[in-house]
Design brief:
Shape: elongated
Number of strands: 13
Distance between the termini: 8 Å
Oligomer: single chain
Structural class: alpha/beta
Length: about 350
């Protein structure tokens, strides 16, 4: 190999959510394909991931986004023939030989959803990093068009890989899951607790549906988002916070249906996860949701409480619709894998002159 592929590994210090799972999944796919690479991380313990097969170097003295801009940049100085890939974010302002990932541009489309510090940081650095980078990875055709339009980027510089569900280690792992001992029926929602996820409308729609069923919401609030406090006036709605992978699988497998009424998404992974475990899904009537979920979801108007309530009632009472969505969901969910995502990246890079030999 005439050059070294370095991976920005700051994501390995975070609990796994959608972005972290994408970065980890892409690294696993590269390792499975026999591609040699080195992961760079801050000097902190890696608690949440199996990294025994990765070549990891811990560098620098800092943590968080500052580590990327200072320690990571210093490490890459003089390595002009090497490449840095950031699967989890936008990388460094100072590095030219890099490929970055932008999952969505919600912070530019809806800055009111984010904390002041998060908004200012990414509004300042993202346009410069986009301009300097060799290529941009994103996770849907919808996000590609938005990035191209907002930042005036040549679409040929942007590669759509799609995201994918995490490898939950197959049936042997699922069979060892300890049940949650839940006897009552429930509708399930899984996401970070932030304004774009539209929980106020979800809760109003659920209440209006008046079904004899609970609503379980899995996810945590993050400091990057503006205040998302939500008033609950019924014991039928339960916020479960962050749960283990084993618990999450159990919740997916035993739900009447999964629901997401997001106002904005770059991809939207939880519906695909739900489909993979045989859970029928209700999703927003967004362009990206149609692109990703295809014919395997029941679409509702995320801005209309009546539509949300109607969708919930439809899937609760109509067994034939649930069965159809489960069948279609298995088919659609199998379209998304990190093997396929990596292949899309490898196939797309040669179309960008400066990236033609990265995986050779």
């Amino acid at each position: 190999m005439s050059h070294v592929i370095y991976i920005n590994g700051r994501f390995l210090l975070n609990k796994p959510t959608g972005i972290e799972n994408f970065a980890y999944g892409m690294c696993k796919a590269m390792a499975n394909r026999g591609i040699e690479f080195v992961i760079l991380t801050p000097k902190s313990p890696i608690k949440y991931y199996d990294v025994h097969e990765f070549n990891i170097i811990q560098i620098g003295l800092l943590k968080g986004p500052v580590w990327e801009q200072v320690d990571l940049s210093i490490f890459m100085l003089g390595k002009s023939s090497d490449i840095l890939i950031s699967f989890s974010g936008a990388g460094s302002l100072l590095i030219r030989n890099q490929i970055i990932t932008i999952h969505d541009i919600a912070v530019f489309k809806h800055p009111e959803w984010f904390s002041f510090s998060y908004r200012i940081l990414y509004e300042l650095i993202t346009p410069f990093i986009i301009k300097k980078s060799r290529a941009i990875i994103t996770v849907s055709e919808f996000s590609k068009r938005e990035i191209s339009n907002v930042f005036k980027v040549n679409p040929q510089k942007i590669i759509v890989t799609y995201s994918a569900t995490k490898d939950y280690k197959g049936d042997n792992f699922v069979d060892t899951v300890k049940g949650n001992n839940i006897t009552e029926p429930y509708i399930l929602a899984v996401s970070s607790i932030d304004p774009r996820k539209n929980f106020r409308s979800l809760i109003k729609g659920f209440a209006k549906s008046n079904i004899p069923c609970n609503l379980y919401i899995i996810g945590k609030k993050h400091k990057s988002f503006n205040d998302s406090n939500i008033e609950i006036n019924t014991d039928k709605i339960k916020f479960l916070g962050y749960v283990s992978e084993a618990e999450l699988i159990d919740y997916y497998k035993n739900a009447i249906a999964f629901i997401s009424v997001s106002l904005y998404e770059g991809f939207g992974l939880p519906p695909i996860e739900a489909m993979s475990f045989g859970c029928p899904t209700i999703t927003s009537d967004l362009e990206v949701c149609h692109e990703v979920c295809k014919n395997a979801s029941y679409f509702v108007n995320q801005n209309d409480i009546e539509s949300i309530a109607s969708g919930i009632k439809k899937l609760y009472y109509d067994a034939s619709t649930r069965e159809k969505l489960v069948k279609n969901g298995y088919v659609v969910s199998k379209m998304y894998s990190f093997h396929n995502s990596l292949q899309r990246l490898i196939s797309g890079l040669p179309q960008i002159k400066s990236c033609s030999n990265i995986f050779q």
